[in-house]
């Protein structure tokens, strides 16, 4: 991607870039919607992601270009969200605002070019990738010192407050702390980040449903509110609980009559998912990949029934893959409401098997799912 990026940058701005940065997309391994509920989550950075190039300008303007868009020009002294086709620029502009609010000094504007090899709309968090890549490049360009956790929080704040998406720390944390052949575990209550080795011989296969995945326009915000409402009801009985993830399965069952049916199911997903993350961590430590797979499959079923953030296309992919030989488990990855399914497999799972699944999918839905065979890769870096 470096050659393509350099060509885009120089042809647009007429100068060479002075900083380049890469940030990966991510797979949500397990821990669906637990991050903004103060819970546990495990994810993996992938080898695909977003690369940016930057240079300073002589004026106080920000000029932004991506492969599939027109030039966007923003005044550095008037940073406001943009609607329409240029709304992708809200991610780097939002990061700029958060960096300025965090104390970074900018004596001029900048040029920024963006290229990506992440599948579009697959729920692999291109948003976090562009946030982290931009933050790394601008911090280097303007001499701002920050650590991985700081960059993750900068990206999350930009997405929460500037873009308007109430996400947690999962996406940015995994993009920042990714490591080859490792999973990233995040305790979102304490924002503690750690890594766990991937079991040898295991693989990720991503099946993109090619159903539009646009979280800002989806029911994501509704789920966020429903979780908040469920917690408020449960706090009447359990006043010490600060988040849904502090409620145990036993406590939730004891308080079932305190909740209406919808809020109970929403809470059941979060409480159950938090328990599944702990179970997966134990199973990985003991090498019990069957137990890992069972938890992944149970996670998808809870998304389908309790959280209702799946769709028929994702259900078909997850259920079909779970029946395939050499597949430990499969589940939707990311926010849901479209996007992709992740299959966690042995090395013996083949491209022919993957193609058979997509052929069955096309026969049922009338359009193709696309396949990405990937692996856990490094977190964000400058180059």
Give an overview in words.
Strand 3 and strand 4 form a beta hairpin. It is built from 11 helices and 12 strands. It folds into 2 domains: 197 residues, Ribosomal Protein S5, domain 2 (2-Layer Sandwich); 173 residues, GHMP kinase, C-terminal domain (Alpha-Beta Plaits), CATH 3.30.70. The mean pLDDT is 95. It has 383 residues and is of the alpha+beta class. The longest helix is centred in the C-terminal third of the chain and has 26 residues. Strands 1, 2, 3, 4, 5, 6, 7 and 12 form an 8-stranded mixed sheet that branches. A 4-stranded antiparallel sheet has the order 9-10-8-11. Helix 10 packs antiparallel against helix 11. InterPro entries: Galactokinase (IPR000705), GalKase_N (IPR019539), GHMP_kinase_C_dom (IPR013750), GHMP_kinase_C_sf (IPR036554), GHMP_kinase_N_dom (IPR006204), GHMP_knse_ATP-bd_CS (IPR006203), Mevalonate/galactokinase (IPR006206), Ribosomal_Su5_D2-typ_SF (IPR020568). One of its GO terms (cellular component) is cytosol. Belongs to the GHMP kinase family. GalK subfamily. One of its GO terms (molecular function) is ATP binding. Its EC number is 2.7.1.6.
């Amino acid at each position: 991607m470096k050659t393509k990026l350099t060509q885009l940058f120089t042809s647009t701005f007429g100068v060479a870039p002075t900083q380049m940065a890469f940030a990966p997309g991510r797979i949500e391994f397990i821990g669906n919607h637990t991050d903004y509920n103060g819970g546990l989550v495990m994810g993996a950075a992938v080898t695909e992601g977003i690369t940016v190039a930057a240079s300073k300008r002589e004026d106080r303007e920000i000029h932004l270009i991506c492969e599939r868009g027109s030039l966007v020009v923003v005044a550095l002294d008037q940073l406001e969200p943009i609607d329409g086709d240029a709304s992708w620029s809200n991610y780097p502009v939002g990061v700029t605002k958060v960096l300025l609010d965090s104390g970074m000094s900018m004596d001029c504007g900048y040029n920024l070019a963006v290229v990506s090899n992440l599948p579009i709309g697959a729920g692999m968090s291109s948003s976090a990738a562009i946030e982290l890549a931009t933050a790394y490049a601008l911090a280097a360009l303007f001499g701002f010192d920050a650590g991985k956790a700081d960059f993750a929080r900068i990206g999350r704040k930009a997405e929460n407050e500037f873009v308007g998406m109430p996400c947690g720390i999962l996406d940015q944390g995994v993009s920042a702390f990714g490591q080859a052949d490792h999973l990233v575990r995040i305790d979102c209550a304490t924002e503690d980040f750690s890594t766990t080795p991937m079991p040898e011989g295991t693989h990720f296969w991503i099946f993109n449903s090619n159903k539009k995945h646009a979280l800002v326009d989806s029911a994501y915000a509704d789920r966020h509110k429903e979780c908040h409402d469920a917690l408020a009801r449960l706090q009447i009985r359990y006043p010490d609980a600060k988040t849904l993830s502090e409620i145990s399965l036993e406590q939730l069952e004891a308080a079932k009559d305190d909740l209406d049916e919808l809020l109970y199911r929403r809470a059941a997903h979060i409480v159950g998912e938090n328990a599944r993350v702990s179970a997966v961590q134990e199973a990985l430590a003991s090498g019990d990949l069957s137990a890992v797979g069972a938890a992944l499959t149970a996670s998808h079923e809870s998304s389908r029934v309790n959280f209702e953030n799946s769709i028929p296309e994702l259900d078909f992919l997850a259920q079909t893959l779970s029946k395939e030989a050499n597949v430990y488990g499969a589940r939707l990855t990311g926010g849901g409401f479209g996007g992709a399914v992740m299959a966690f497999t042995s090395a013996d799972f083949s491209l022919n098997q993957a193609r058979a699944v997509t052929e069955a999918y096309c026969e049922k839905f009338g359009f193709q799912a696309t396949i990405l065979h990937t692996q856990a890769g490094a977190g964000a870096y400058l180059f």
